[in-house]
Amino acid sequence: MDLETTAERIEEQIKEYAKYFLKTEYGDQALKRLEIFDIKAVDAYDTGGVSEVTDNDIKIAARRDIDAGKLTNTTKLIIRHELGHILDENSPAFPEFEEQIEHEKIAWVNAKPKTPAEHWYKNVSIRTHIDPLKMQSMGFPRPETKISPELLKQGINIELKRMKRHSLLTDKILAKRFAMANLVEDPNYYNPNRYS
Ligand SMILES: [Zn+2]
After folding, report:
1. Each residue of 10-58: pLDDT tens digit?
2. Ligand 1 center–CA 15 separation, angstroms
């Protein structure tokens, strides 16, 4: 099966899953909201915040599904998060930073994460792609001011090395987000003697 066919098939599965979720969890009225949206599978991972809702589009990063040849559980949760934005009737078009955080939280509630794995993913997503939410919930409007620059630099380097093991592409911004999130929770996170 060639790549294009797989991508098209995944896109169909995303559409079906979106309809199924809205109908079973929220009913026919909610399902009607989908009519103005075009759902698109994008050949990308979602680490860069690819999955999003715009005025008439729902874009879902589907590289992992194309690779797997099927709709993965992670992507199902992301679809529900994006639908969670559609269900959020008071979502402002141009939110302030604080508002945006509130509406990300609403979208996660609307996505109805259920299993421990889904809650885990939600938290990782909050820490990385939507990390300000996590930082703010911990009371740090500017997390980098709470972490020593040396520790942060060390953490970024370790995260970059970790990324290189899995992919040719590294993302310095993402590495910084991971390092900040980990160090805010535990300043010894990158200490090699942590467990000794
Ligand atoms: Zn969101």
Report:
1. 999 999 999 999 999 999 999 999 999 999 999 887 665 678 888 899 9
2. 18
Query: Cβ(178)–Cβ(143) under 8 Å?
Result: no
Give me the sign of the Cα torsion angle 181, 186, 188, 194.
Answer: negative
For Cα atoms 175, 102, 90, give the angle at the middle one, nearest 5 degrees.
130
How far away, in angstroms, is 150 Cα from ligand 1 center? 32
pLDDT-derived band of residue 133, with 50, 70 and 90 as boundaries?
very low
Question: Could you list which residues have their CB under 5 Å from ion ligand 1?
Answer: 104, 107
Rounded distance, CA 20 to CA 141, Å? Answer: 38
